[in-house]
Amino acid sequence: MKRLGAWPAWIFLALFFLAPLVALIPEAFDGQGAAFGRIFADGLFWGAVRNTILLGLLAGTLSTLVGTLIAIELARQPEHRRQWLMTLLGLPLAFSGLVIAYGFILAFGRAGFVTQLLGLLGADSARVGSWIYSVWGLGLAYAYYLIPRVALSLYPVFANFDQRPLWAARTLGATRWQAFRDTVVPEIAPSVFSCACLIVALTMGTYGTALALVGTQLNILPLMLLTKISDGGSDFAGAAAMSLILMLICVIVMGIGDVIASRSQKQVAGIGH
Amino acid sequence: MSLILDQVSYVYPGTTHGLTDVSLSIEPGELVAVIGQSGSGKSTLLKLVSGLSTGHTGSILLNNEDLATKPVHLRNIGVVFQSYALFPHLNVLENIAYGLKLRGVPADERRRRAHELLEVIDMTPFADRAVTQLSGGQQQRVALARALVINPAALLLDEPLAALDASIRGHLRDQIRQLQRRFNATTLLVTHDQEEALVMADRVAVLKEGRLLQLATPKILYEQPASRAVASFVGLSTILPAKVLATNRIDLGFATLAANTGSRSAGSAVFALIRPEHVQADPAEDTPNRLTGSLGTERYLGSFYRYDFNALGADTPILAESRTVAQNAIAIAPEHIRLLDH
Question: Which residues fall within 8 angstroms of residue B219, CB to CB, at 6 or more apart?
Fold first, then answer.
């Protein structure tokens, strides 16, 4: 293994990441970029961009918020209980997007048992039952498996958090809340924010759960892309152009997260013990 | 401001050990050091005074006010931690001014007072630096300034020098002592380093397994320790089991020596404490308390030698320090043999 070095990884990356990417570029720019002109002129495309970003922000914010709270709680647990909780949290990560989508339909769909229960309480089951097929409902389904992801990736940040500056703040006259605001928040905010960016980018590119849950009723970029190349569609140039745009949006979001994270790294590096 | 601990006891949650009946008082402006090995409870004592730990019995009085119900942020006690515990996202000046900001001091005034402290710790050019760019010694000076700027009712130092290199420890030790005197801060210093305690403190408390063994000035602690435990913890020594033979005469098993037995009756079991600097190398034949034997391990320490001397018939060597090394005899003047009862 040592003699091969990182070569297998590089070959894998070249074959399955770079090559498809490179193949996209001439496809998208075929005919002096006519494909870009075509999709930019399409009102549906702009609607999809808007919905995609909205979905990303919605699922990203919700997942980060809840996931962070769980991470804090995880870090405070004794070792044995933490192991147990982490295994439990890991479960949704292992489920396929399809399974999750069907689970949500069975629970919150038009004939779902939660919808029926709410109907018994007087709610309009037609409205409740269609809510799950909206951007909001899809955001909630995404959050189902993104929350554990946030919690598990942020938990080390809280577990390794140096509490002593917090104590110092308390002795200097800070209330619990002031000490938290002045020492914990500035320390962990970059990690939380960069994790949120990754989650937002992930959400915007996902399509499995979306397809299973809402079919192509909901206008978001990944589903629009799918319709361009599946069954009836054959606009490969348009699909390639949209892929590049979707990728660009995701790269920008993740780039922002990376910049924030590396900045805080630089600041913390060199803190003496 | 005086700090008084009266019969303070504390049990670590889920265990049976902690602190037992610790009483000590620190006069205004006095520096009292608490020394003990790790696990002796000295850091717990400091946490209880600062309020970072709660649940003790007995009372802790600061300026005659019981701290039991006062939360940590209202105690106005400055704490300096071993790990500095500076705020990494704030610069040097902001770190120092933090306590003033919490007290609602206007920005201009905050800056002025933080700058004053910076000057006192000799770090004026570092005002706008990130604390992460400072050396350990500089970080600890900033931490000290941050604790002093709020005019604390008491100052607690938790192993303030333990994380630093030996080369700067001595210098910072003197600087802390100067500042403590200048601010007339009532100070509790916790350390495992007995030398640090002897050099810095007005009085030293020795803590073992949660109990206070002795509280005295460094000189008394060294010269008149109350027990073997204190003697072995403070300074180097040889402690030999002995028996009182008659008034001012003791039996070490391998030799009999003259020593001040006080009011002890013949037959009492005691321990004889001998400090290494009181061992005389190769004394004249007629010197009292002369022991013959041979030289053991010898260590050259520059200005003096520290060596083991194996007295004839003795199981344990006697530790000695002098400019020359004893080849075949040593002597200990009777007034320098101190007897301990336990």
Answer: none
